[in-house]
Amino acid sequence: MSHVTQIEKIRERARHHIAExxxxxxxxxxxxxxxxxxxxxxxxxxxxxxxxxxxxxMATGIHSQAVKAEFKEHAEEEQEHAGRIAERIxxxxxxxxxxxxxxxxxxHSEYREGTSLADMIREDLIAERIAVETYREIVRFFGDRDPxxxxxxxDILSKEEEHADEMADLLFAVEPSTGEGSRPLYFAxxxxxxxxxxxxxxxxxxxxxxxxxxxxxxxxxxxx
Length: 224
Description:
- The chain is mainly α.
- It has a domain at 27-173: Ferritin (Up-down Bundle), CATH 1.20.1260.10.
- The protein contains 7 helices and 2 strands, in the order H-H-H-H-H-H-E-E-H.
- It has a two-stranded antiparallel sheet.
- Helix 2 (31-58) packs across helix 4 (100-106), helix 2 (31-58) packs antiparallel against helix 5 (117-142) and helix 5 packs antiparallel against helix 6 (147-171).
- The longest helix has 28 residues, at 31-58.
- The chain starts with a helix and ends in an 8-residue tail after the last helix.
């Protein structure tokens, strides 16, 4: 087939399938599957927006102001991600699913509020790590068969990696000279069930830094 003939056929297909928008016959993926995967990513982003916003409004404590700024910035960036994904779903001929009743079911990460400032950061860090891993899978799924969706998800993935790094920096201190090791950055009264006197801060001296045993304790458990 000559180049001229091929161009004519492409023009003819474009005219006959004009309702398909940007999706042409050579789209190599199952569109329904691609849309379903993107809707899961969309749900993940919306749930992240809601969790970050909740943390922004509810964060308290001596460290809260700087942390609140991070929560607010991340919420805004996750909202931007959601908009980009929703737009791509529409381009593929699908419907962005935003029904609140099913968002948490489709989201890769959970909506967990946390009960202290450190707990909030920890929940956001866990959610970002989940997004990083699942988005890498999505990037591999699209591959060369849908480069537009792949590039979009690669861009979003890089932001989620940045978010995870920032949450980790807020939660742990790393030895500058080696880049190794970590210690908690929060006072005992900023950590769920960290103090043994009913949650009250000790009156003498500086507030105690929480120990590594407290850091490792799961939410809801008491340190030994």
